[in-house]
Design goal:
The chain is an alpha+beta fold and 638 residues long. It contains 23 helices and 23 strands. The strands form 7 sheets. Strands 2, 3, 4, 5, 10, 18 and 19 form a 7-stranded mixed sheet that branches. Strands 12-11-23-22-21 form a 5-stranded antiparallel sheet. It has a 3-stranded antiparallel sheet with strand order 1-8-9. Helix 11 packs antiparallel against helix 23 and helix 15 crosses helix 17.
């Protein structure tokens, strides 16, 4: 019985084991396996912690000083690589504007350790005002402590040597190399080329200069402004490692800058130089065009100015001196100077009269030296008069009475119509910035402007280029060029083409026609022949423009200022403006010139010799002593 019971219990153990296992009860053999696994895991964790502790010991104790030094004293900086600005050349590829390296003193604000001490040291080395420098830096740090600001631009070699010598005493100081615009010291073509100036904070905030930063130089006027996007190029950058003093330790990466495109002008530098030399000591302008396509050969304004002053940074005192100068050297008189055209306007009158058929080549008026009209007497420049005059002789001798009579027949509105056909009363399209349109008066204009009707006596003044008439030198060059080429008024063209630094032409400009006179060849030929007589006929008023290598056609002019022949208040300029416009050769003309000399007096004796120098330079003949000798008849005022 006991035997059976024992057998029953032994047989029940497997069932019991299965029952306990199903209920999650851990048996001894399973507990042993778990203990082994936990032991292995604990050993692994201890080994890992040991390795980590060993690495921390190595970094903190063995390499700790090196890493602490690098973290405290080294920086990764990205510095700009300003692009080299494109060159400006004349039509013969003679370089008129180039670049040269300049060294600017900059301050890295976050690297400055002792601002008062640094300001005092820089003040001693560079003769700066320490208080002003400290205030400038403090204001910049308050705005953005990570900025780099410029302290002094275009350091001299002596200043650069001083900074490098004491560099260890100047934490935060950085010498930055940038391309500096190099203009000719004689200011050649300064008004048409323009100049650069440092970009202002307002310009940056305007959003019009997304690629620029503070310290960049951009075009302010002239070609430098108009073609800014071509000339400027694209900036690059260098990622470098520097120490606490801002010294470069090593280069990490670099993206090179892209130079700006080169600009080839239509200007002939020899002709431009001759024009400016002829204007030396005077106030006025010279414009020379190719009459066959409108390309500008010279565009000079006097007095000139030094563009390099702006490159270095104009002080408030210098700027005030420039803008308050009574001679207005910054004014580009070639496109902004507005003057009565005087007798040069008789070219327009002659074409209008022939085309409107108010007179013919044979029509004759008698000049006794004056024309009474109402209660006023309109005088001719020649007191004794010219006698009987036809159109040809009236042009040659510049008879005022003949053109008074012609104006009476035409009326102011037909004069205005032909003036506009010649391009007067509107900008020429040169696109050099701020060009003035001049003024073409008419009966409608006076009604709108003054709410008054037009008087016939005013037409007489307009007929000889006085009264309300206003023109610019660039416009008058277009007028005489239209006679030279047979009746086409071109848009003046100043840029020939734009090319990449590698010499690939990116954009080539083509001649553009502004308008056509729609005058008959017979009319153009008669007027052209009369203008030839102005220079080559014995009684012509433009003898001083003769040159030995080509026939010249031209027209003198005198524009009255304030009171004819009288001096105003003491020191006030009241002499007449002197005009001369011309073209050469008379047949198949290659050059057309307009000259204005402010308060010069008579066009024949003052302006014509200037035109002669320009013509001589164009035809590559040395001027010699003849250039300064006036050949005008002594009694020819216009």
């Amino acid at each position: 019985m006991f035997m059976n019971l024992g057998k029953t219990k032994n047989n029940a153990f497997p069932k019991l084991r299965r029952s306990l296992k199903g209920r999650g009860v851990m048996l001894p053999e399973f507990q042993e396996e778990i203990r082994k696994s936990l032991f292995i895991l604990s050993i692994s964790v201890l080994i890992l912690f040991g390795l980590l502790s060993l690495r921390l010991w190595y970094l903190q104790l063995v390499k700790g000083y090196e890493f602490r030094d690098r973290s405290e004293h080294n920086r990764i900086r990205t510095r700009d690589l300003p692009p080299w600005r494109g060159m400006i050349m004349d039509q013969g590829k003679r370089v008129m504007v180039n670049n040269t390296p300049a060294y600017d003193l900059m301050l890295v604000l976050e690297d400055i350790q002792n601002l008062p001490q640094l300001a005092q040291r820089l003040g001693d080395l560079l003769h700066l005002n320490p208080q002003e420098l400290e205030a400038k830096v403090a204001a910049a740090q308050k705005e953005n402590s990570l900025r780099i600001i410029k302290v002094r631009g275009d350091l001299s070699w002596e200043e650069l040597a001083l900074i490098e010598t004491y560099r260890y005493e100047l934490p935060g100081v950085l010498i930055q190399v940038r391309p500096k615009r190099e203009y000719r010291r004689d200011g050649l073509a300064c008004h048409l080329i323009g100049y650069l100036g440092e970009i202002t904070e307002g310009q940056l905030k305007s959003g019009k200069f997304p690629e620029n930063k503070m310290g960049d130089y951009i075009g302010r006027c002239g070609i430098e402004l108009v073609l800014e996007k071509y000339l400027s190029g694209c900036r690059g950058s260098r990622q470098i490692e520097v120490d606490a003093l801002g010294r470069e330790l090593r280069l990490l990466s670099s993206t090179p800058s892209t130079p700006g495109a080169n600009v080839r002008l239509t200007i002939d530098a020899r002709v431009q130089q001759a024009a400016e030399a002829a204007l030396a000591g005077k106030s006025g302008a010279v414009v020379a065009l190719n009459p066959q396509n409108g390309k500008v050969l010279a565009l000079a304004s006097a007095p000139t100015f030094d563009q390099n002053v702006f490159e270095k940074g104009v002080t408030p005192q210098q700027w005030q001196q420039l803008i308050n100068d009574k001679e207005h050297p910054l004014e580009n008189r070639a496109v902004r100077g507005q003057y009565p055209p005087g007798s040069t306007f008789k070219i327009v009158m002659a074409v209008a009269a022939l085309e409107e058929k108010v007179l013919t080549a044979q029509t004759t008026f008698y000049c006794c030296g004056a024309l009474p009209f109402g209660n006023h007497v309109f005088h001719c420049w020649r007191k004794g008069g010219h006698g009987g005059m036809n159109l040809y002789n009236a042009l040659v001798q510049s008879c005022d009475v003949f053109f008074y009579r012609t104006g009476q027949r035409l009326g102011v509105d037909r004069i205005a119509k032909w003036s506009r056909r010649f391009g007067l009363g509107q900008t020429s399209g040169l696109n050099l910035g701020s060009e003035k349109p001049g003024l073409v008066p008419s009966s409608d204009w006076k009604k709108r402007r003054f709410n008054q009707r037009w008087h016939e006596g005013e037409t007489l003044s307009v007929s000889i280029g006085q009264g309300y008439n206003l023109v610019t030198p660039i416009q008058m060059a277009g007028v005489v060029a239209a006679i030279a080429n047979g009746g086409t008024v071109y848009v003046p063209q100043l840029v020939d083409y734009i090319e990449s630094p590698e010499g690939e032409v990116l954009f080539e400009f083509q001649p553009q026609v502004a308008s056509r006179l729609e005058a008959s060849p017979a009319t153009i030929n008669l007027v052209r022949r009369g203008l030839r007589g102005v220079v080559h006929e014995p009684r012509g008023t433009g003898h001083a423009a003769r040159i030995p290598m080509a026939e010249v056609g031209g027209k003198t002019g005198t524009a009255q200022v304030i009171a004819l022949g009288k001096e105003g208040r003491r020191g006030e300029k009241t002499h007449d403006h002197a005009w001369f416009v011309c073209f050469a050769p008379v047949e198949n003309s290659e050059i057309a010139v307009a000259v204005i000399i402010e308060h010069g007096g008579h066009g024949g004796s003052v302006a014509a010799p200037v035109a002669r120098q320009v013509l001589m330079a164009y035809f590559q003949k040395p001027a010699g002593g003849e250039m300064a000798r006036s050949l005008a008849a002594p009694d020819s005022p216009n």
